[in-house]
Amino acid sequence: MSNDFKKNFKERRNNALKGSLIDIALLLLPIIIIMLLLNLTLIGVFIPLLLLYFSLPMFYTIVKRLTFKVTRIGKKNFSFADGYKAFFKGSVGGIFGVISTLFFTVALILIFSLILSPAFDAIFNLYPEAVNFINAYNEMTTVSELINLIQTSASALTKPFIIIVGIIAFIPSLYLYFFAFNNNLIHHHICSIVLPDIDKNLSASQARALSRASFSKVIISKVYANAFKTSWPYLLVYIILYGLSLYGMTFANTDNTYVMFLLVMVTPSLSALYGFILNYFVLLNELSIVEELKDNLLNDMPEQLKVSIYQTYCNPSYIHGEESSARGCFVPAPNYQKEQQTYTAYQQPKEKEADTEKKDENYEDPQGVVIDLSEKKESDDK
Question: For a FRET experiment, which of 82, 104, 173, 224 has its CA 20 to 30 Å from that of 155?
Protein backbone atom coordinates (compact mmCIF):
# COMPACT_ATOMS: atom_id res chain seq x y z
CA MET A 1 0.00 0.00 0.00
CA SER A 2 1.18 3.52 -0.74
CA ASN A 3 0.99 6.12 1.99
CA ASP A 4 -1.87 7.94 0.26
CA PHE A 5 -3.77 4.68 -0.17
CA LYS A 6 -3.29 3.80 3.52
CA LYS A 7 -4.44 7.23 4.62
CA ASN A 8 -7.53 7.27 2.41
CA PHE A 9 -8.41 3.67 3.27
CA LYS A 10 -8.17 4.24 7.02
CA GLU A 11 -10.23 7.41 6.77
CA ARG A 12 -12.95 5.67 4.76
CA ARG A 13 -12.93 2.62 7.02
CA ASN A 14 -13.06 4.65 10.23
CA ASN A 15 -15.98 6.69 8.93
CA ALA A 16 -17.78 3.50 7.95
CA LEU A 17 -17.28 2.02 11.42
CA LYS A 18 -19.51 4.69 12.95
CA GLY A 19 -22.87 3.19 13.77
CA SER A 20 -21.71 -0.37 13.09
CA LEU A 21 -23.10 -1.57 16.44
CA ILE A 22 -26.63 -1.08 15.11
CA ASP A 23 -25.79 -3.22 12.10
CA ILE A 24 -24.34 -5.92 14.36
CA ALA A 25 -27.52 -5.91 16.44
CA LEU A 26 -29.62 -6.33 13.29
CA LEU A 27 -27.27 -9.05 12.09
CA LEU A 28 -27.99 -11.17 15.17
CA LEU A 29 -31.47 -12.15 13.95
CA PRO A 30 -30.41 -13.80 10.66
CA ILE A 31 -27.43 -15.34 12.49
CA ILE A 32 -29.77 -17.05 14.94
CA ILE A 33 -31.79 -18.35 12.00
CA ILE A 34 -28.62 -19.76 10.40
CA MET A 35 -27.63 -21.43 13.68
CA LEU A 36 -31.05 -23.08 13.84
CA LEU A 37 -30.63 -24.07 10.21
CA LEU A 38 -27.34 -25.85 10.92
CA ASN A 39 -28.89 -27.81 13.77
CA LEU A 40 -31.96 -28.72 11.74
CA THR A 41 -29.84 -30.20 8.96
CA LEU A 42 -29.80 -33.40 11.04
CA ILE A 43 -33.61 -33.52 10.99
CA GLY A 44 -34.56 -32.72 7.41
CA VAL A 45 -33.73 -30.79 4.26
CA PHE A 46 -36.88 -28.78 3.55
CA ILE A 47 -37.03 -26.74 6.77
CA PRO A 48 -33.35 -25.62 6.66
CA LEU A 49 -33.60 -24.56 3.02
CA LEU A 50 -36.79 -22.61 3.76
CA LEU A 51 -35.14 -20.82 6.66
CA LEU A 52 -32.11 -20.01 4.52
CA TYR A 53 -34.18 -18.58 1.68
CA PHE A 54 -36.19 -16.24 3.90
CA SER A 55 -33.15 -15.09 5.88
CA LEU A 56 -31.27 -13.86 2.79
CA PRO A 57 -33.11 -10.48 2.61
CA MET A 58 -31.97 -9.81 6.19
CA PHE A 59 -28.35 -10.33 5.20
CA TYR A 60 -28.96 -8.18 2.11
CA THR A 61 -30.22 -5.41 4.42
CA ILE A 62 -26.97 -5.49 6.38
CA VAL A 63 -24.95 -5.39 3.13
CA LYS A 64 -26.89 -2.34 1.92
CA ARG A 65 -26.39 -0.54 5.23
CA LEU A 66 -22.68 -1.38 5.13
CA THR A 67 -22.38 -0.25 1.50
CA PHE A 68 -23.95 3.09 2.42
CA LYS A 69 -21.40 3.58 5.20
CA VAL A 70 -18.56 2.96 2.75
CA THR A 71 -19.89 4.93 -0.25
CA ARG A 72 -22.52 7.31 1.22
CA ILE A 73 -24.78 6.29 -1.66
CA GLY A 74 -28.24 4.88 -1.03
CA LYS A 75 -30.60 4.85 1.91
CA LYS A 76 -28.99 5.46 5.30
CA ASN A 77 -31.53 3.56 7.41
CA PHE A 78 -32.14 0.65 5.05
CA SER A 79 -34.58 -1.64 6.91
CA PHE A 80 -35.55 -5.30 6.79
CA ALA A 81 -38.76 -4.24 5.03
CA ASP A 82 -36.67 -2.52 2.33
CA GLY A 83 -34.52 -5.63 2.07
CA TYR A 84 -37.43 -8.00 1.54
CA LYS A 85 -39.01 -5.64 -0.99
CA ALA A 86 -35.79 -5.29 -3.00
CA PHE A 87 -34.93 -8.97 -2.72
CA PHE A 88 -38.24 -10.42 -3.87
CA LYS A 89 -39.60 -7.64 -6.08
CA GLY A 90 -36.31 -6.42 -7.52
CA SER A 91 -33.46 -8.16 -9.32
CA VAL A 92 -30.94 -8.61 -6.50
CA GLY A 93 -31.91 -12.14 -5.46
CA GLY A 94 -28.67 -13.57 -6.78
CA ILE A 95 -26.30 -11.11 -5.14
CA PHE A 96 -24.90 -13.72 -2.73
CA GLY A 97 -24.69 -16.60 -5.22
CA VAL A 98 -26.07 -18.95 -2.56
CA ILE A 99 -26.66 -21.96 -4.78
CA SER A 100 -23.12 -22.13 -6.14
CA THR A 101 -21.68 -21.27 -2.72
CA LEU A 102 -23.55 -24.08 -0.96
CA PHE A 103 -22.54 -26.47 -3.72
CA PHE A 104 -18.83 -25.74 -3.24
CA THR A 105 -19.20 -25.80 0.56
CA VAL A 106 -20.78 -29.27 0.48
CA ALA A 107 -18.08 -30.37 -1.96
CA LEU A 108 -15.42 -29.15 0.50
CA ILE A 109 -17.08 -31.06 3.33
CA LEU A 110 -17.03 -34.27 1.29
CA ILE A 111 -13.42 -33.72 0.20
CA PHE A 112 -12.18 -33.11 3.76
CA SER A 113 -14.19 -36.09 4.98
CA LEU A 114 -12.26 -38.29 2.56
CA ILE A 115 -8.91 -36.64 3.32
CA LEU A 116 -9.35 -36.96 7.10
CA SER A 117 -10.97 -40.40 7.09
CA PRO A 118 -7.65 -42.21 7.81
CA ALA A 119 -7.45 -40.23 11.07
CA PHE A 120 -10.88 -41.33 12.30
CA ASP A 121 -9.57 -44.56 13.82
CA ALA A 122 -6.93 -42.63 15.74
CA ILE A 123 -9.61 -40.31 17.14
CA PHE A 124 -11.79 -43.24 18.23
CA ASN A 125 -8.75 -44.87 19.85
CA LEU A 126 -8.48 -41.87 22.18
CA TYR A 127 -11.58 -43.16 23.97
CA PRO A 128 -11.67 -46.81 25.09
CA GLU A 129 -15.48 -46.95 25.08
CA ALA A 130 -15.44 -45.80 21.44
CA VAL A 131 -13.05 -48.63 20.56
CA ASN A 132 -15.65 -51.10 21.84
CA PHE A 133 -18.18 -49.48 19.49
CA ILE A 134 -15.84 -49.95 16.52
CA ASN A 135 -15.33 -53.59 17.37
CA ALA A 136 -19.08 -54.12 17.61
CA TYR A 137 -19.65 -52.14 14.42
CA ASN A 138 -17.33 -54.44 12.47
CA GLU A 139 -19.54 -57.38 13.45
CA MET A 140 -22.78 -55.73 12.29
CA THR A 141 -24.65 -57.44 9.46
CA THR A 142 -27.88 -55.42 9.17
CA VAL A 143 -28.88 -51.75 9.26
CA SER A 144 -31.29 -52.30 12.15
CA GLU A 145 -28.45 -53.72 14.25
CA LEU A 146 -26.34 -50.65 13.46
CA ILE A 147 -29.18 -48.28 14.47
CA ASN A 148 -29.66 -50.13 17.75
CA LEU A 149 -25.92 -50.03 18.41
CA ILE A 150 -25.77 -46.24 17.84
CA GLN A 151 -28.78 -45.68 20.11
CA THR A 152 -27.16 -47.61 22.91
CA SER A 153 -23.68 -46.11 22.40
CA ALA A 154 -24.37 -42.37 22.53
CA SER A 155 -22.06 -41.87 25.51
CA ALA A 156 -19.20 -43.60 23.70
CA LEU A 157 -19.71 -41.75 20.41
CA THR A 158 -20.34 -38.18 21.57
CA LYS A 159 -16.75 -37.02 22.04
CA PRO A 160 -15.28 -38.68 18.91
CA PHE A 161 -18.12 -37.40 16.76
CA ILE A 162 -17.71 -33.86 18.14
CA ILE A 163 -14.03 -33.86 17.21
CA ILE A 164 -14.51 -35.44 13.77
CA VAL A 165 -17.39 -33.18 12.71
CA GLY A 166 -15.66 -30.08 14.11
CA ILE A 167 -12.44 -30.74 12.20
CA ILE A 168 -14.23 -31.58 8.95
CA ALA A 169 -16.37 -28.41 9.14
CA PHE A 170 -13.52 -26.01 9.94
CA ILE A 171 -12.17 -25.21 6.45
CA PRO A 172 -15.63 -25.21 4.77
CA SER A 173 -16.93 -22.80 7.43
CA LEU A 174 -13.92 -20.53 6.97
CA TYR A 175 -14.53 -20.53 3.23
CA LEU A 176 -18.26 -19.90 3.66
CA TYR A 177 -18.05 -16.97 6.09
CA PHE A 178 -15.00 -15.09 4.80
CA PHE A 179 -14.45 -15.92 1.13
CA ALA A 180 -17.43 -17.27 -0.82
CA PHE A 181 -20.07 -14.63 -0.11
CA ASN A 182 -17.49 -11.84 0.08
CA ASN A 183 -16.08 -12.75 -3.30
CA ASN A 184 -19.51 -12.51 -4.90
CA LEU A 185 -20.22 -9.18 -3.18
CA ILE A 186 -16.86 -7.75 -4.27
CA HIS A 187 -17.50 -8.58 -7.92
CA HIS A 188 -20.98 -7.07 -7.71
CA HIS A 189 -19.62 -3.91 -6.07
CA ILE A 190 -16.98 -3.48 -8.75
CA CYS A 191 -19.68 -3.78 -11.39
CA SER A 192 -21.74 -1.13 -9.54
CA ILE A 193 -18.77 1.24 -9.65
CA VAL A 194 -18.09 0.73 -13.34
CA LEU A 195 -21.78 0.76 -14.32
CA PRO A 196 -23.80 2.61 -11.66
CA ASP A 197 -27.38 1.38 -11.22
CA ILE A 198 -26.47 -1.92 -12.85
CA ASP A 199 -29.16 -3.61 -10.72
CA LYS A 200 -31.80 -1.59 -12.56
CA ASN A 201 -30.58 -3.06 -15.84
CA LEU A 202 -29.37 -6.60 -15.07
CA SER A 203 -29.98 -9.16 -12.37
CA ALA A 204 -27.40 -9.34 -9.59
CA SER A 205 -26.10 -12.70 -10.78
CA GLN A 206 -25.66 -11.34 -14.33
CA ALA A 207 -23.87 -8.25 -13.00
CA ARG A 208 -21.57 -10.43 -10.92
CA ALA A 209 -20.78 -12.67 -13.88
CA LEU A 210 -20.13 -9.62 -16.08
CA SER A 211 -17.74 -8.15 -13.55
CA ARG A 212 -15.90 -11.43 -13.03
CA ALA A 213 -15.44 -11.87 -16.78
CA SER A 214 -14.17 -8.35 -17.48
CA PHE A 215 -13.95 -5.46 -14.98
CA SER A 216 -12.68 -7.31 -11.91
CA LYS A 217 -9.74 -8.87 -13.71
CA VAL A 218 -7.99 -5.51 -13.72
CA ILE A 219 -7.72 -5.07 -9.93
CA ILE A 220 -8.96 -8.24 -8.24
CA SER A 221 -5.45 -9.42 -7.30
CA LYS A 222 -4.76 -6.05 -5.64
CA VAL A 223 -8.07 -6.27 -3.79
CA TYR A 224 -7.28 -9.72 -2.39
CA ALA A 225 -3.71 -8.80 -1.45
CA ASN A 226 -4.72 -5.65 0.42
CA ALA A 227 -7.74 -7.37 1.96
CA PHE A 228 -5.53 -10.04 3.51
CA LYS A 229 -3.14 -7.42 4.89
CA THR A 230 -5.98 -5.57 6.61
CA SER A 231 -8.21 -8.48 7.64
CA TRP A 232 -5.91 -11.32 8.76
CA PRO A 233 -6.46 -10.49 12.47
CA TYR A 234 -10.18 -11.27 12.07
CA LEU A 235 -9.33 -14.63 10.50
CA LEU A 236 -6.95 -15.38 13.37
CA VAL A 237 -9.64 -14.54 15.94
CA TYR A 238 -12.04 -16.88 14.14
CA ILE A 239 -9.52 -19.73 14.18
CA ILE A 240 -8.84 -19.22 17.91
CA LEU A 241 -12.55 -19.08 18.82
CA TYR A 242 -13.31 -22.15 16.72
CA GLY A 243 -10.49 -24.07 18.38
CA LEU A 244 -11.60 -23.07 21.88
CA SER A 245 -15.20 -24.01 21.09
CA LEU A 246 -14.17 -27.42 19.76
CA TYR A 247 -11.91 -28.05 22.75
CA GLY A 248 -14.64 -27.05 25.21
CA MET A 249 -17.20 -29.33 23.59
CA THR A 250 -14.93 -32.37 24.05
CA PHE A 251 -15.90 -32.28 27.75
CA ALA A 252 -19.60 -32.69 26.91
CA ASN A 253 -21.29 -36.07 27.03
CA THR A 254 -24.76 -37.58 26.95
CA ASP A 255 -26.55 -40.92 26.91
CA ASN A 256 -29.31 -39.59 24.64
CA THR A 257 -28.79 -40.13 20.91
CA TYR A 258 -30.72 -37.02 19.84
CA VAL A 259 -28.88 -34.81 22.31
CA MET A 260 -25.63 -36.32 21.02
CA PHE A 261 -26.39 -35.08 17.49
CA LEU A 262 -27.14 -31.60 18.86
CA LEU A 263 -23.86 -31.53 20.77
CA VAL A 264 -22.00 -32.62 17.64
CA MET A 265 -23.33 -29.56 15.78
CA VAL A 266 -22.65 -27.00 18.53
CA THR A 267 -19.19 -25.96 17.28
CA PRO A 268 -20.16 -25.61 13.58
CA SER A 269 -23.42 -23.79 14.40
CA LEU A 270 -21.84 -21.53 17.04
CA SER A 271 -19.19 -20.54 14.49
CA ALA A 272 -21.92 -18.74 12.56
CA LEU A 273 -22.29 -16.28 15.46
CA TYR A 274 -18.73 -14.99 15.59
CA GLY A 275 -18.03 -15.86 11.93
CA PHE A 276 -20.64 -13.51 10.45
CA ILE A 277 -19.88 -10.76 12.98
CA LEU A 278 -16.15 -10.88 12.23
CA ASN A 279 -16.88 -11.02 8.51
CA TYR A 280 -18.88 -7.79 8.79
CA PHE A 281 -15.60 -5.98 9.46
CA VAL A 282 -13.74 -8.00 6.83
CA LEU A 283 -16.31 -7.02 4.21
CA LEU A 284 -16.14 -3.41 5.35
CA ASN A 285 -12.38 -3.46 4.71
CA GLU A 286 -12.81 -5.12 1.32
CA LEU A 287 -15.43 -2.67 0.05
CA SER A 288 -13.32 0.25 1.28
CA ILE A 289 -10.33 -1.15 -0.60
CA VAL A 290 -12.36 -1.51 -3.81
CA GLU A 291 -13.51 2.11 -3.51
CA GLU A 292 -9.94 3.33 -3.05
CA LEU A 293 -8.78 1.34 -6.09
CA LYS A 294 -11.24 3.00 -8.47
CA ASP A 295 -8.55 5.12 -10.10
CA ASN A 296 -6.32 2.08 -10.58
CA LEU A 297 -9.22 0.25 -12.17
CA LEU A 298 -9.82 3.06 -14.65
CA ASN A 299 -6.14 3.65 -15.45
CA ASP A 300 -5.32 -0.02 -15.99
CA MET A 301 -8.43 -0.79 -18.00
CA PRO A 302 -7.93 -1.50 -21.73
CA GLU A 303 -9.13 1.27 -24.05
CA GLN A 304 -11.47 -1.09 -25.86
CA LEU A 305 -13.19 -1.96 -22.60
CA LYS A 306 -13.56 1.73 -21.79
CA VAL A 307 -15.30 2.24 -25.12
CA SER A 308 -17.79 -0.51 -24.34
CA ILE A 309 -18.47 0.85 -20.85
CA TYR A 310 -19.07 4.37 -22.17
CA GLN A 311 -21.37 3.09 -24.89
CA THR A 312 -23.36 1.00 -22.43
CA TYR A 313 -23.73 3.78 -19.87
CA CYS A 314 -24.80 6.29 -22.53
CA ASN A 315 -27.16 3.87 -24.24
CA PRO A 316 -30.73 5.30 -24.23
CA SER A 317 -31.95 1.92 -22.96
CA TYR A 318 -29.74 2.07 -19.86
CA ILE A 319 -31.79 2.93 -16.75
CA HIS A 320 -30.20 5.50 -14.43
CA GLY A 321 -30.95 6.27 -10.81
CA GLU A 322 -29.37 7.41 -7.57
CA GLU A 323 -26.02 5.71 -8.16
CA SER A 324 -25.68 7.36 -11.56
CA SER A 325 -26.38 10.76 -10.01
CA ALA A 326 -23.76 10.20 -7.31
CA ARG A 327 -21.02 8.52 -9.36
CA GLY A 328 -21.59 9.65 -12.93
CA CYS A 329 -20.05 7.84 -15.85
CA PHE A 330 -17.04 5.79 -14.76
CA VAL A 331 -15.21 6.52 -18.02
CA PRO A 332 -14.66 10.28 -18.56
CA ALA A 333 -16.03 11.89 -21.70
CA PRO A 334 -13.47 11.35 -24.49
CA ASN A 335 -11.26 14.06 -25.94
CA TYR A 336 -12.37 14.01 -29.57
CA GLN A 337 -9.61 16.27 -30.85
CA LYS A 338 -6.75 14.17 -29.52
CA GLU A 339 -8.23 10.70 -29.72
CA GLN A 340 -10.94 11.03 -32.31
CA GLN A 341 -10.34 7.72 -34.07
CA THR A 342 -10.06 5.70 -30.86
CA TYR A 343 -13.20 7.15 -29.33
CA THR A 344 -15.42 7.57 -32.38
CA ALA A 345 -17.63 4.82 -31.00
CA TYR A 346 -18.20 6.91 -27.85
CA GLN A 347 -20.50 9.33 -29.63
CA GLN A 348 -24.16 8.94 -28.83
CA PRO A 349 -26.62 8.94 -31.74
CA LYS A 350 -27.84 12.46 -30.98
CA GLU A 351 -24.27 13.76 -31.05
CA LYS A 352 -23.33 12.20 -34.37
CA GLU A 353 -23.11 14.49 -37.36
CA ALA A 354 -24.96 13.75 -40.56
CA ASP A 355 -21.80 13.26 -42.52
CA THR A 356 -19.43 10.75 -40.95
CA GLU A 357 -16.09 9.82 -42.34
CA LYS A 358 -15.53 6.31 -43.61
CA LYS A 359 -13.47 4.04 -41.41
CA ASP A 360 -9.90 3.34 -42.35
CA GLU A 361 -9.36 -0.01 -44.00
CA ASN A 362 -7.26 -1.21 -41.04
CA TYR A 363 -9.72 0.10 -38.42
CA GLU A 364 -11.30 -2.55 -36.22
CA ASP A 365 -14.35 -2.04 -34.04
CA PRO A 366 -13.33 -1.92 -30.40
CA GLN A 367 -13.92 -5.19 -28.65
CA GLY A 368 -15.04 -5.29 -25.05
CA VAL A 369 -17.96 -6.11 -22.85
CA VAL A 370 -21.31 -6.43 -24.58
CA ILE A 371 -24.44 -5.95 -22.50
CA ASP A 372 -27.90 -6.75 -23.83
CA LEU A 373 -30.30 -4.31 -22.20
CA SER A 374 -33.31 -5.36 -24.23
CA GLU A 375 -34.59 -7.74 -21.55
CA LYS A 376 -33.54 -9.30 -18.28
CA LYS A 377 -33.24 -13.00 -17.77
CA GLU A 378 -35.93 -14.44 -15.56
CA SER A 379 -33.68 -17.01 -13.92
CA ASP A 380 -31.48 -15.89 -11.07
CA ASP A 381 -28.99 -17.55 -8.74
CA LYS A 382 -30.69 -17.12 -5.41
Answer: 173
